[in-house]
Structures are given as structure tokens and as C-alpha cells.
């Protein structure tokens, strides 16, 4: 018999109940007890949803983040919150977001606000975790209260509980040694201190009568230094004979050179992500010791497509023969990364809906697979036939396949991605046309999304405002931002993006090949969720998407108006993407569609076009060895999009909140005339990468931290730009904020940009 289990369940709730509960609590609108009760209620519901599994995860719930929960279980709290008294949950929120609930803070010992923990992406997902902090003094201290509560609840509900914890090596790997005196030189030096706490935790599970513990070590799918590989051996040898069984869980990629290591650790089972590492399943079956369980992640926990159950059974059946009871079955990774329930998507096109599976539907698929393996396919004939029909319908649907798009893709040749001439020659022509001063000023695209804008949008959606009423409202906003920019004296203007709710969704809605869910929310961090659009078919652009708005904005001013677009790589990386062709192919399709938009803008007389690639870096594969391949098609896609224009048309791109050092050559390869980047927080140090590389084109390093309500002074901006000029020749520098201004108020933006323009004037007057 195969055993079914799940690595984790989305905790936000099908209707984002946790989000709203958290926000009520933080605002002081509900009590801590109400929030805790909501947590218990969601856990109970989610275990009920998983009741057909042989083992259900316990401890995968978190009020903010599972890594932060682990830090609390290990007693690793940053020093800055250690003085606080009161409820542990409040301290937890202090680390998560710098403060707890309104009411809770008033009674806290201190001022109420502390620095929030740093947040970063969980491997290659769009989920962000709170980075564990380490110093040379870090000590650990087991706190089992969280597990105790959840185990009790699960038991009371009759759940066959499998606690889920983050393994010690991944925990250390995810953390960061804090700067300052007593900085820890090597995180692995903490392992001897960490091990007794993990051992005590496992002992605790034994006392609680737990049979299996899932211990997550996703770092095993990355390239590990010898020291980290050795640490695995030390750590897991230290867990021998604890009296509970350990399922070592890996996911998000292939184990490759770590497969041997993973199979040799003294644990009782190994989970492999068979979506990403199908070919390693058979290898692991061979290499694992005879007592060991092999858990196969056969259903994609990261995507929203139905599994091809028949094809999956074709390769699972022989494996089940070979392994017997030692075969376990699960989704490839925690279902945290998919929405909860497709059944709520009443408005989604029925045909497209029939191709999809959200978390609950994935659990149903798991059950069908297990039944077929345990009792034969004829026990699930109906389910398998329905699945086969859906898979075939999707494969053959004319809505997925557009021969014209495929033909256009086949016609791509490298020349399409080349500008007419090299940057230097283009720069001369652009300068003659645009007549910009030294240190030209611009902004990144969006201006404040005011209450009026949101009101007009919701009125339009509900039907209270018609198309032309909505258009008028947006034009008014565009006019306002153009007037403000002229008054400020900015050099290259933007229309302000009033008509866009989201930089990806806006384009997705206008492209063929995209669908949108209503409740397809996925947790991004804390109470924040995103609803990625669904790229299901060949992508084409039925008509121009932005030309009218930009032309209108340009008609209001003599200054150059930037055409604003989102680039193909960013659209791809922030969508659920079809799994029936390589991501690169979908990206090239997006590139051709956006390219048409670029050319239409140029035809309409737009002289500067900005193509944002905010998510280019985050698409990098987990393994460095695969970076080259990704960067090749990502850069090629950008070049296809951008570089069909005449020399005179100036192409900008924008990237933010990334480490650029590793990919600077690829950024240069994109050959944008100007790149604007976020740098103000790093004191221009980010520019070192561009300096060292001798970045050849123009750069606008951000001088205004748009995430802060603080207004940068003129003097501060001048100083930052002087630092920039030490690294990049002044004639290739632009002056601009870090990123778009849509989350700010006009009352903040106006003084900040006034100072920015004044700073540019100072710099010009001092330039020789
Ligand atoms: N043009 C977008 C804006 O200004 C860019 C946003 C981003 O980089 N994330 O909002
Ligand atoms: Zn940005």
C-alpha cells in the first residue's frame, strides 16, 4: 500500500481569512484571543480538508511565516525584541513587521517600534520569509509551545499528525550573520549549539507519540560547499536513534551531486520533487537503504494545472511494484504556493477551469493516484477518464494553440534583437533629438494611486461608471501628473500609470492567452497575497495596449513623454505559466507581443520607451550552473522586445531591489540606452558592480527611497550623485527615484521631487 501525505497546506484561507484577521488584530480592531481562535479554526478546517491523507502536516501553519515560527521554536529571537514583555505572539509580530498590534504596543516596555526582520525570497518562489539573525553570541533554547498546541488540536480532531520542521542545515543556510562587533564569521560554527535543541525537539516529539517527522532540507537542491555537505553528515548522524522516524524532504529542484549524500544520511525516508527531478526518483529507489521510504512528489505544488494522472501512473506503477509499502506519494512541495480552491472560481471560463487544479483539487488527484496504485486503475476508471479528457482537451484546444504565434516564433532571428547601431552612435542621435541637460531628471513611472483613482476603478468594475466616464477620470489623473511634473521642472515625463492596477495584470488582461482567477490568492509575505494571472495559451496582442494613454499624455506637453511597458521576463515571472512548453518559449511569445507595442509607440511619435524588468533577477534558477541558460533567453527576450526601434528612440529599462553583481554582464547585454535602478539605501555601493564592469550605457541610480515616507534633502541627493559620479562618468548619469511612486502620497512626492530637481540643477551648475 502506498502512503499519502502532504508537505504543507496554504494557511491564508480560501477567502484570505487569515489576512483579514491579522490586519484587524494589528489595527487594534480585534483581540489576541480572537486572532488565535481564527488560527485554530483555519487549522481545523485545513486538516479536515486533508482528512483522506494517511499523514497530514502539523506545524505548517504560521501567523506570519514558517521560518519565523522555527526561529521562535529554537529560541532564536533578535536581541532588540528580548526586552519586551507580554504575549509571545506580540513579540513575534515585532520581529515580523517591526511592531505588533495597536493596543499591544502601548503596554510594551519601550517605544513600540523596532526594526523589522529582514525579508527575502524563499528559494525561487515568490514567498518571502523572515531571515533568521545570527551573531557570534547566538544561543538556542527550545520552545515547544507552538508544536504542543497544534499537536493537541490535531489529535483532538483525529488527524494522523506528521510534524513539519525546517532542518538545521537549511535553517542555518537561510539565516544571516548580522553586521557589527561580534559578527559571526561562519554560520556553521553555530551547528554544535543548534544540535542539542533539535535533538531535544525530536525527543519531545517522541514523548508526544509522534511516529514520523518531516524535516525540510531544500538546500539539498542547490550547489553546496564541501563544508555544508559535511555538516549534513554531522547533523543527521546526531539524530540517530531518537525514537522518531525522519522523512528528509527536498523540493524545488534536482539533487544531482547531493543525491548520493541525501540517500546516505541516517534517516528513515527521503522526499523527492518528481516534478523537477523525475529522473532522480529511480536512482533514489536504487540507492536508498532497504528500510527507507521514498516519498515521491508527483503532483506539482507550484503550479495550477491538472496532473496528467494516466501518464503519472505509467511511471509510478513499476515503482510501486518495486517499493511496495516503501512508496509514499505527495505533492512536490508544500501547497503554500497555490491557491486553495478552484470551486470558488465561478467566473472563470469553464473550459479553462476544467484544465486547472488548486490545492484541494490536487489532494483529490493524490487520492486517485493512490487508489489506482493500491487497488488498480479500474477502481478509478471514471476519474481517470475524466482526467484524460481534460488533459487532451487542453492539449488540443484552439485557445491554447495559435499557429500564427508559433509561426512568428519560428521566424525569430538574432537580428531582431539588435539595434541599428552601437550605443555611442545612438546616444549622439538621441541627444540631438531630446536635447536633455546634464544629469537629466525623470521618475520610474507611477504616481500616487489616489483615493479618486481607486474609486473610479471600483465604480468602473461595478458598472456604476461607463467606459467613457472611466476614461475621462483617468485622463484627468494623467493631466494632473503631467502638470505637476512640468511645474517641478522634470526633464523626461511619465503619464503616471493611473489606469494600471498592477504592472503585470494590466498587460495580461489585454493579451490573448491569459486568464484571471477571482480568488486565486497566494501568500507573498505575512498578510500580503498576490493573485498571479494564468498564462494558458499562445500569447498575442489583439490591439495596442498603451498607445492611446501615452499619446494623450504626450499631447499635453512638449517635454518627452516615456512610453511605459512591463517587460516579458517580468510578466512571465509573476504569472502562473503553462507547463506544456518551456518557459523560454512563453517568454519569447510575450517578447514578440510587447515588441509590437514598442513599435506602435514609436510610430505614434513616442521618443523614449521604458521597459520594466523588475523581476528579471528573481527568475534565476537555484543552481548557478543553470543561470547561463536562463539569462540567455531572458536577455534575448528583452532584446527582441526593445531593440527593433530606430537609433533615435531611447530605450530605458528599470530594475529594483536586486543584487546586480552576479548578472551585470547580462544587464549590459540587454543594451538598453538607460537603466534606472534602486540604490539609495545602499549608499550607491550597488553601483560598484556597474563601475567594475565598466557598464557602457547610461544609468539612473535611485536617490529617493520610495518605501520611506521621509523626504530626501537636496543636499543628500547631491551627495549621493557625487558618489555615483565617482563610479560612473557624469555625462552618463540620470537623476531619479528608486522605483515607482504609486504607494506614496502627493504631499510626500512633491517636496521630494522638488529637492531632486534642485539637486540636479546644483550638479549641473558645478559640472565643468
Ligand atoms: N513602472 C513601475 C512603477 O513605476 C515600476 C514598478 C517596479 O519596478 N516594481 O510603478
Ligand atoms: Zn522598481
Q: What is the name of the CATH class of the largest domain?
A: Alpha Beta
Strand order of the largest sheet: 1-12-11-10-9-8-6-2
Q: How many domains?
A: 2
- Form type: globular
Tell how many strands the DSSP assignment holds. 22
Biggest β-sheet description: 8 strands, parallel
Pick out the low-confidence regions. Answer: none
Keywords:
single chain, TIM Barrel, 28 helices, 12% strand, binds zinc ion
What would you note in describing this structure?
The protein is an alpha/beta fold and 768 residues long. It has two domains: 3-339, Alpha-Beta Barrel (TIM Barrel); 437-450 and 481-496 and 546-767, Alpha-Beta Barrel (TIM Barrel). The chain is 42% helix and 12% strand. The chain has 28 helices and 22 strands. It has an eight-stranded parallel sheet with strand order 1-12-11-10-9-8-6-2. Strands 17-19-20-21-22 form a five-stranded parallel sheet. The chain has a three-stranded mixed sheet with strand order 13-16-18. α16 crosses α23 (583-603). It is globular, with a radius of gyration of 27 Å. The relative contact order is 0.08. The site of zinc ion has 6 residues, from loops. Zinc ion (ZN) binds at residues 444, 614, 654, 656, 739-740.
What is the topology?
Layout: E1 3-4, H1 17-26, H2 32-49, E2 56-58, H3 66-73, H4 88-97, H5 102-106, E3 119-121, E4 128-130, E5 133-134, H6 145-156, E6 161-166, H7 168-174, E7 176-177, H8 191-207, E8 212-216, H9 226-237, E9 245-249, H10 259-264, E10 269-273, H11 278-287, E11 293-299, H12 309-323, E12 327-331, H13 350-353, H14 359-375, H15 381-396, H16 403-410, H17 423-434, H18 451-462, H19 467-488, H20 505-508, E13 512-515, E14 522-525, E15 528-530, E16 534-540, H21 547-555, E17 562-566, H22 568-573, E18 576-577, H23 583-603, E19 608-612, H24 627-642, E20 650-655, H25 664-670, E21 674-677, H26 687-693, E22 698-701, H27 714-727, H28 746-766
Parallel strand pairs: 1-12, 2-6, 5-7, 6-8, 8-9, 9-10, 10-11, 11-12, 16-18, 17-19, 19-20, 20-21, 21-22
Antiparallel strand pairs: 3-4, 13-16, 14-15
Amino acid at each position: 500500500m502506498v502512503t499519502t501525505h502532504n508537505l504543507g497546506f496554504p494557511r491564508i484561507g480560501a477567502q484570505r481569512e487569515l489576512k483579514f484577521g491579522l490586519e484587524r488584530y494589528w489595527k487594534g480592531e480585534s483581540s489576541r484571543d480572537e486572532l488565535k481562535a481564527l488560527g485554530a479554526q483555519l487549522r481545523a478546517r485545513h486538516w479536515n480538508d486533508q482528512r483522506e491523507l494517511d499523514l497530514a502536516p502539523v506545524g505548517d501553519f504560521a501567523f506570519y511565516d514558517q521560518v519565523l515560527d522555527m526561529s521562535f521554536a529554537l529560541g532564536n529571537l533578535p536581541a532588540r525584541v528580548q526586552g519586551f514583555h507580554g504575549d509571545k505572539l506580540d513579540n513575534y509580530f515585532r520581529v515580523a513587521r517591526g511592531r505588533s498590534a495597536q493596543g499591544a504596543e502601548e503596554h510594551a516596555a519601550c517605544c513600540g517600534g523596532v526594526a523589522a526582520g529582514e525579508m527575502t525570497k524563499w528559494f525561487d518562489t515568490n514567498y518571502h520569509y523572515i531571515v533568521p539573525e545570527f551573531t557570534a553570541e547566538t544561543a538556542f533554547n527550545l520552545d515547544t509551545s507552538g508544536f504542543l498546541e497544534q499537536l493537541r488540536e490535531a489529535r483532538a480532531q483525529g488527524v494522523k499528525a506528521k510534524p513539519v520542521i525546517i532542518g538545521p542545515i537549511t535553517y542555518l543556510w537561510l539565516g544571516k550573520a548580522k553586521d557589527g562587533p561580534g559578527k559571526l564569521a561562519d554560520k556553521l560554527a553555530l551547528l554544535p549549539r543548534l544540535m542539542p535543541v533539535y535533538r531535544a525537539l525530536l525527543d519531545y516529539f517522541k514523548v508526544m507519540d509522534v511516529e514520523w517527522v518531516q524535516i525540510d532540507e531544500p538546500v539539498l537542491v542547490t550547489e553546496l560547499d564541501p563544508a555544508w555537505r559535511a555538516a549534513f553528515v554531522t547533523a543527521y548522524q546526531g539524530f540517530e536513534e531518537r525514537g522518531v522516524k525522519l522523512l528528509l524532504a527536498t523540493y524545488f529542484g534536482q539533487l544531482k551531486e547531493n543525491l548520493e549524500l541525501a540517500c546516505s544520511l541516517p534517516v528513515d525516508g527521503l522526499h523527492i520533487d518528481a516534478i523537477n527531478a523525475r529522473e532522480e526518483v529511480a536512482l533514489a529507489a536504487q540507492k536508498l537503504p532497504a528500510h527507507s521510504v521514498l516519498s515521491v512528489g508527483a503532483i506539482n505544488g507550484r503550479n495550477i494545472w491538472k496532473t496528467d494522472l494516466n501518464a503519472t501512473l505509467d511511471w509510478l506503477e513499476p515503482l510501486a511494484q518495486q517499493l511496495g509499502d516503501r512508496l509514499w506519494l505527495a505533492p512536490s512541495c508544500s501547497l503554500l504556493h497555490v491557491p486553495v480552491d478552484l470551486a470558488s472560481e465561478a467566473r472563470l471560463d469553464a473550459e479553462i477551469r476544467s484544465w486547472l487544479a488548486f490545492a484541494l483539487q490536487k489532494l483529490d488527484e493524490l487520492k486517485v493516484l493512490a487508489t489506482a496504485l493500491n487497488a488498480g486503475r479500474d477502481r478509478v476508471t471514471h476519474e481517470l477518464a475524466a482526467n484524460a479528457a481534460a488533459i487532451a482537451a487542453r492539449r488540443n484546444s484552439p485557445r491554447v494553440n495559435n499557429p500564427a504565434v508559433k509561426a512568428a516564433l519560428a521566424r525569430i532571428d538574432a537580428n531582431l534583437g539588435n539595434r541599428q547601431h552601437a550605443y555611442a552612435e545612438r546616444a549622439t542621435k538621441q541627444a540631438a533629438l531630446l536635447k536633455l541637460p546634464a544629469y537629466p531628471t525623470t521618475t520610474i513611472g507611477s504616481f500616487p494611486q489616489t483615493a479618486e483613482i481607486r474609486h473610479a476603478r471600483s465604480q468602473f468594475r461595478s458598472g456604476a461608471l461607463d467606459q467613457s466616464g472611466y476614461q475621462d477620470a483617468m485622463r484627468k489623473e494623467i493631466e494632473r501628473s503631467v502638470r505637476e511634473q512640468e511645474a517641478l521642472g522634470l526633464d523626461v515625463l511619465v503619464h503616471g500609470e493611473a489606469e494600471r492596477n498592477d504592472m503585470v495584470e494590466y498587460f495580461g488582461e489585454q493579451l490573448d492567452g491569459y486568464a484571471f482567477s477571482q480568488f486565486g490568492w497566494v501568500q507573498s509575505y505575512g498578510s500580503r497575497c498576490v493573485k498571479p494571472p494564468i498564462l494558458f495559451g499562445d500569447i498575442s496582442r489583439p490591439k495596442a495596449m498603451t498607445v492611446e494613454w501615452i499619446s494623450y499624455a504626450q499631447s499635453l506637453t512638449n517635454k518627452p513623454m516615456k512610453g511605459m511597458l512591463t517587460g516579458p521576463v517580468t510578466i512571465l515571472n509573476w504569472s502562473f505559466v503553462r507547463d506544456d512548453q518551456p518557459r523560454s518559449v512563453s517568454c519569447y511569445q510575450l517578447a514578440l507581443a510587447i515588441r509590437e507595442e514598442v513599435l506602435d509607440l514609436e510610430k505614434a511619435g513616442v521618443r523614449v520607451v521604458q521597459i520594466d524588468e523588475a523581476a528579471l533577477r528573481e527568475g534565476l534558477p537555484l543552481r548557478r550552473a543553470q543561470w547561463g541558460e536562463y539569462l540567455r533567453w531572458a536577455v534575448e527576450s528583452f532584446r527582441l522586445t526593445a531593440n527593433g526601434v530606430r537609433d533615435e528612440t531611447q530605450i530605458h529599462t528599470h530594475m529594483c531591489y536586486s543584487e546586480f553583481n552576479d548578472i551585470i554582464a547580462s544587464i549590459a547585454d540587454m543594451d538598453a540606452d538607460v537603466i534606472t535602478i534602486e540604490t539609495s539605501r545602499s549608499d550607491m555601493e550597488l553601483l560598484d558592480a556597474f563601475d567594475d564592469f565598466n557598464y557602457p550605457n547610461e544609468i539612473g541610480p535611485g536617490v529617493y527611497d520610495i518605501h520611506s515616507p521621509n523626504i530626501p534633502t537636496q543636499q543628500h541627493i547631491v551627495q549621493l550623485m557625487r558618489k555615483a559620479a565617482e563610479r560612473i562618468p557624469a555625462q552618463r548619469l540620470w537623476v531619479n527615484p528608486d522605483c515607482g511612486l504609486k504607494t506614496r502620497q502627493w504631499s510626500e512626492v512633491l517636496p521630494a521631487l522638488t529637492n531632486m530637481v534642485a539637486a540636479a540643477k546644483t550638479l549641473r551648475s558645478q559640472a565643468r
